[in-house]
C-alpha cells in the first residue's frame, strides 16, 4: 500500500486539536440533530448487531445504545487516543458497548457479522483508494440484507456551502465527497438500493445522508438482471 493510501487523518486533522472535537461537533454541526436522524434512518431492531464505523469519541455509539438498549453495539476507530475518550464517555453514560481498534478499510471482524453499519463524518478523512476499500469492507462484514447508513460531506448545492466546504477540503480528503462520487463508490462495491435521503447545512458546508443495502442472497439473480454489468456481491 502506498504512503498516500496509508495516510491517517486524526479528528480535526491535527492531533493537538482532538480535545476540541466534541465541542465543535456539538455547537458547530448540530451533532445531536444529525446523529439522531442517522439512528432513526437505520430502523434498528432488538437483537441486531450494530457497528459504528470510525466511532471517534463514541458519541454516536453511546447514542445508539441508549436509543436501542437491546441491540449489540460496537464502535471501531483507528485512533487509540480518541478511543480512550470513548471508553470514558461510555463508562460515564453507564452503557455496555464494545470499542475496538481498527481501520475502516481493514476491519477486524468476520464476514457477515453486522445487521447495520453506521458512519458519521468519517469518509472525508479517507483517501479515494481507502474510501473504496472501506465500502468493500463494510459490504463484507454486513449480513445479507444488512444496511449501511452514512452521513458525510457531499455535493454542495449553494455557493455559500461550496465556499465553506472548500475550507475543509484544504485539510481533508473531500474530493470524491464534493464531486458526488460516494454513491457510485458504494455501487462499485456491489451495494444495492443506494440513495441520498437528505441534506443538513453546517458551518463547514452541507452534509448528506446516504443509505445502501447488502443484497440478499435470494435477490442476487434479480439484481444481476436489473444491472447486468454490476459485479456480484463479495463475501
Number of domains: 1
How many helices does DSSP assign? 10
What is the fold named in CATH at topology level? Answer: Rossmann fold
Low-pLDDT windows of residues: 1-5, 12-18, 219-235
Structural class: alpha/beta
- From N to C, what is the helix and strand string? HHHEHEHEEHEHHHEEH
* Separation of the first and last Cα atoms: 22 Å
Biggest pleated-sheet summary? 7 strands, mixed
Q: What percentage of residues falls in helices of 4 or more residues?
A: 25-40%
Rg (CA only): 17 Å
Q: What is the CATH architecture annotation?
A: 3-Layer(aba) Sandwich
Lateral arrangement of strands in the main beta sheet:
3-2-1-4-5-7-6
Which descriptor suits the 3D outline?
globular
Average pLDDT level: 82
Beta content comes to 15-25%
State the name of the first-level CATH class: Alpha Beta
Please give the number of β-strands: 7
For CATH, the homologous superfamily is named as Vaccinia Virus protein VP39
What would you say about this model in short?
The chain is an alpha/beta fold and 235 residues long. It contains ten helices and seven strands. It is 38% helix and 21% strand.
Amino acid at each position: 500500500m502506498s504512503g498516500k493510501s496509508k495516510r491517517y487523518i486524526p479528528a480535526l486533522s491535527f492531533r493537538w486539536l482532538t480535545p476540541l472535537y466534541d465541542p465543535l461537533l456539538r455547537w458547530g454541526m448540530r451533532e445531536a440533530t444529525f446523529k439522531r436522524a442517522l439512528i432513526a434512518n437505520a430502523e434498528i431492531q432488538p437483537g441486531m448487531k450494530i457497528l459504528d464505523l470510525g466511532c471517534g469519541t463514541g458519541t454516536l455509539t453511546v447514542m445508539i445504545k441508549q436509543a436501542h438498549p437491546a441491540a449489540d453495539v460496537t464502535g471501531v476507530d483507528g485512533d487509540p487516543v480518541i478511543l480512550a475518550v470513548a471508553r470514558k464517555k461510555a463508562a460515564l453514560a453507564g452503557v455496555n458497548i464494545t470499542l475496538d481498534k481498527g481501520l475502516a478499510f481493514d476491519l477486524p471482524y468476520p464476514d457477515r457479522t453486522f445487521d447495520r453499519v453506521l458512519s458519521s463524518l468519517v469518509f472525508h478523512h479517507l483517501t479515494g483508494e481507502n474510501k473504496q476499500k472501506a465500502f468493500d469492507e463494510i459490504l463484507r462484514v454486513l449480513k445479507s440484507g444488512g444496511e449501511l447508513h452514512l452521513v458525510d460531506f457531499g455535493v454542495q448545492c449553494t455557493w455559500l456551502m461550496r465556499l465553506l466546504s472548500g475550507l475543509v477540503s484544504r485539510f481533508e480528503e473531500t474530493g470524491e465527497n464534493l464531486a458526488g462520487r460516494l454513491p457510485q463508490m458504494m455501487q462499485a462495491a456491489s451495494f444495492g438500493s443506494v440513495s441520498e435521503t437528505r441534506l443538513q447545512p453546517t458551518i463547514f458546508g452541507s452534509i448528506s445522508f446516504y443509505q445502501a443495502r447488502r443484497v440478499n442472497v435470494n435477490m442476487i439473480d434479480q439484481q444481476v438482471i436489473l444491472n447486468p454489468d454490476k459485479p456480484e456481491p463479495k463475501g
